[in-house]
Every structure is written in C-alpha cells, then in structure tokens.
Amino acid sequence: MARFKAVVFDIDHTLIDFIAMKRYAIEHTAWALVDTGLNMTVEEAFNELWKVQLENIESDNWLSEFLKKVQGYETDLQIAAGTKAYQHARDLMQRPYPHTRLTLTKLLKKGVKLGALTDAPSLKGYKRIIGMDFTEFFYEEDGYAIFTPKETGVHKPDPKGFYMVLEKLSVKPYEALMVGDHPVKDIEGARKVGMKTAFAKYGAKGQYRTDLPAFDESQADYVLNDISDLVDIVCQG
User: Fold this and answer.
1) Which structural domains are found in the chain, ordered by start?
2) How is residue 11 annotated by DSSP?
3) Gap between the Cα atoms of 125 and 166, Å rounded
4) Half-sphere exposure of 197 toward its Cβ, with a 13 Å CA cutoff?
5) Above pLDDT 70, what percent of the chain?
6) Does 59 have pLDDT greater than 60?
7) Distances (CA, A) of 157 to 84, 154, 207, 227
8) Count helices and strands in the chain by DSSP H and E runs
9) Closest C-alpha to 12, from 216, 179, 191
10) Up-side HSE of residue 117: CA atoms within 13 Å toward CB?
11) Which residues have CB under 8 Å from 114's CB, separation 6+?
C-alpha cells in the first residue's frame, strides 16, 4: 500500500524547468530585437531583458516595458518580432525536469492520485501542462485536478486552494503530499492545512533563483534532489 493516496504538485520549478524555459526564450527575443533595430548588443539586450522579466515575471507587457526603458519608445516591428521569437522559443523549451514523466507514470500505476496547484495565471498554467503533454496525469472522472488562481480565487499559501484540490482528489490532508519549490507558498501553506510536504530542491537551487526566502530544509517532511525520489517516498508504506 502506498504511503500517500495523492500527490499535489506545484508546476513552475517543480514539474517544468521554468528558468531554463525563460532564459532560452529571452535569448531568442534579444536576437530578434537587435535584428529589428535595437541599438544594443545581444548580450546587453539579454541581460536587460532578464532583469525586466524578473521584475514582471508573469506580465504580458514586459516587452513593451523593456523597449521603453532602454530606448524610450517601442515600434510595432520590434513588438511583433520580439513576441514571435519569445513565444516560439518558449514553446520549444516547455520541458519537464528529467525523470518527471516516468515518475508520474509510476505513481499513477501504484494507484496514487495526482493534482496540480499553481499561482501561474490560468491560461499560462494550462499551456505549460499541455506543452509538456501532462494533461493525462491530472485527469479525474469529473474533470482535471489542476487549480490556478482563476479556479481558487486566491494565491498560495492561502489554504483555500489546498482544500479545493484535496476535495477534487477526494482525500484528507494527511493522506496527501505537497511537492513544491517555494518554502512559503508550497511548504508552509501545505503544512498549515495538515498535508505532508516534499521540498523540490532540484528546482529551488541555482544562481538564478533569487526570488526564494531563506529556508531550513528540515521544515519539509522530505527533500527531493531529483523528482524520481518521490517513488520510494510515496509508494513504500
């Protein structure tokens, strides 16, 4: 018998390598902007674009804000070229962390229910799940167990979102494990509703993760160096 009846995943930095996707897309955006007249080197454009992205990580106006910041105006040509380059490169790099598909498959085969709880805007969250071809893993008989702020009306660590996904999966808090990279949103939020927690260390580490607060890993019930660590944690009673 599995130790947990359900596992709930954050998406960004937990299932998908969000930083790798963003940096790849921004690199291509920098090339496109320089090719359409931006008076900067590709390296300069990339570094400034990255700063703007970190400040406006889910904004839809970041490209316009960048152009106004560095040259004082924007052109339709630059917006069109930059947007196309960014979206094309981003879609190519919507890849899960290594061993993610195999891990999710093993969990399902053991009868473990899977859910997702993200703070990403609804359309973007679903695009990432679909881009990784992961929708099949989160399907329940009465619909998908994928929750964004559009469905919950709140952001993590508000308990409402955790309770909604638990209800969808028909499990009690102590029967479920929350997997995420954020100490407050994922780990602290899940602990407060009575869930066990697994810290996705593989997604939290790296020089570009400057957005995370200090965290004592012992506050999580489990620490994952690789997502595949979940199989032994969840499936060995």
Assistant:
1) 6-17+96-235 (3.40.50.1000), 19-92 (1.10.150.520)
2) S
3) 19
4) 25
5) 98
6) yes
7) 34, 9, 25, 22
8) 11, 8
9) 179
10) 33
11) 6, 7, 8, 9, 104, 107, 108, 137, 138, 145
Q: Quick one: pLDDT at residue 58? A: 65
Among 88, 108, 113, residue whose Cα is nearest residue 169:
113
DSSP 38-56: -SS-HHHHHHHHHHHHHHT
What is the token pair recorded at 54? 């970190």
The predicted pLDDT at position 237 comes to 55
φ and ψ at residue 141, rounded to 5 degrees: -60, -30
One-letter amino acid at 208 equals Y
For 62-112, how does the pLDDT look when each residue is reduced to its tens digit (9 = 90+)?
899 899 999 999 999 999 999 999 999 988 888 899 999 999 999 999 999
